[in-house]
Amino acid sequence: MSTRIGFIVRILSEGRAGAEFRPPGEILLGARAITEQVLHETLAYTKTHRVSFGTAILEMEAITEDALLRALSVQTGAPPASARDLAAVPPDLIRLVPPKLAEKHTTLPFRKVGRTLYIAMAHPRNTLGGDEIAFLTGLSVVRHVAITAMRGKTVLFLLGEAVGSSHALQIPFLRRHASMTALALEILALRKKLAAI
User: Fold this and answer.
1) What pLDDT is recorded for position 186?
2) Which of 84, 141, 142, 197 has the most CB atoms at less than 10 Å from its CB?
3) How confident is the model over 146-166, as a mean pLDDT?
4) Cα–Cα distance between 144 and 128 in angstroms, integer?
5) Which residues, including other chains, have CB under 8 Å from residue 17's CB and lie 6 or more apart?
6) What are the residue ranges spanned by the domains of the chain?
């Protein structure tokens, strides 16, 4: 069995076993996706740089975004929202969730099928957030886990279309924006202003 397939099988078999909370580092270590040394280096990085475990391990380039996303999916019990899922978010879909609500629950709607809205969340176990979005939109909501960096890349892509790739924002700017949806709405407003010029 290839290492990649073995990793996926271990991740999936571990994910459905219990409902207790397990840190992503422990999940990745248990699936043999990282070593103990990488785990300790990543934990040290989180303290010195004051970032989350996921941000740290990605910035260290110790694993791929897909591997981290699978571990987060196991941790939360929510299906993953991949980079491909977030690559083409229509502007009208972003407008479905009010910016303050999106900021409050750190969410980004990425697909709508019939009366079902699929949302990418940093914390999909937050059932209150999903329920509140469902109530305000009048749609059924399916919560997916997404890596914050992926949501940020989606916004950077939208911004790149609006102002050109030469004016791409830096990561510290994104860290100051808790809501990717609010930022995306700002980008849409910027698009309209640029189109009027």
Assistant:
1) 60
2) 141
3) 52
4) 14
5) none
6) 3-76, 83-196
**Cα 140 to Cα 32, 132, 143, distances in angstroms:** 37, 11, 10
- Are the C-beta atoms of 159 and 174 separated by less than 8 Å? no
The mean pLDDT value for 52-65 works out to 88
Sign of torsion, CA 113 185 173 167?
positive
Strands 140-145 and 107-113: unpaired
Could you tell me which of 25, 124, 18, 108 has the C-alpha nearest to residue 67?
Answer: 25
Question: Hey, what CATH topology would domain 83-196 get?
Answer: GMP Synthetase; Chain A, domain 3 (3.30.300)
Looking up tokens 């809205």 gives 117
Q: How far is CA 11 from CA 6, 65, 77, 88, 127, in A?
A: 9, 15, 11, 28, 23
Whether the pLDDT of residue 1 is over 80: the answer is no
Q: What is the reported pLDDT for 172?
A: 39
pLDDT (0 to 100) of residue 96: 87
| β strands within the chain, DSSP E | 107-113, 116-121, 140-145
Length of the chain (residues): 197
Query: With 80 as the cut, is the pLDDT of residue 146 above it?
Result: yes
Structure tokens at 156: 């950077």
- Can you spell out the DSSP letters for 99-126? HHHHHHHTEEEEEEETTEEEEEES-TT-
